[in-house]
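Note to self: keep these together.
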Amino acid sequence: MSTIVIADNHALMRYSIKRLLEQNGHTVVAETENGQETLHMVKMLEPHLLIMELDLPEIHGLDVISVLTLGKCSSKILALTAYDAENYLIRCLKAGASGFISKTAELSEIQFAIRALLIGKNYFPNVTLKMAKSIKRTYLSREQKPIKLTRREIDILKLLANGHNNQEIAKLLMISHKTASAYKLRLLFKFNTSHLLGMIDAARREGHLTEGGAAS
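Structure:
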C-alpha cells in the first residue's frame, strides 16, 4: 500500500486529490498547506510519494524539491500545478522532482502520472527519457562540486543562519544595507535556491555551518 503526502494551499484541491487517491487504494498520511510543513512532514513520515503544488506559502515548491533532493529524500515528488508547463516543467526536473503535471490535465493523466512514479518511473510530458536523464545528470554533477565561500560570505551566512536580517547584518559588519543584500543574493545563487531555509540546509550539508548555525 502506497503512502502519500498532499501539499496544496487550497483545501478543495487537497480534498479532491485525497478522494482520487483513496479510491485507488492509496493512503494519504498527511495534508499540508505550506512549504515549511511539507518539509517537516516528508522528513518525518518518509512517504512513497509527495504530490505538491509549487505555489506554496512560506517556502516555494521548487525550494522544497531542492531541499528534499539534496537531503537524499527517498520520496518521489510529483509537482501538480497551474503554472505554465513550458516554464516550470524543466525547472522541476532540474530541482529533482520525479514528475510534473498540470492541474488542467485530464483525471486519467493524473492517475497515470501517480502510477508511473509509484513504480519507479518519471513522468514529464513532452520530455523524452534521454533528455530527462541528461538534465538530471548535469544537475547532480553540479551539486557534487564543493561550494567555495569567501571569509566575508561565511560571516554573513552565519549571521543569516542565526536569524539576523540584512539591516542588522549591515550594522554588525559595518557595511551598507545594499552590500549586505548583495551578499545574501550571492549566497542564494551559490547554493542554488531562492529561499533562506533552503540555503541554510544546503550550507549545513556542505559543512559550512554546524547544526547550531555557527560557521565550521
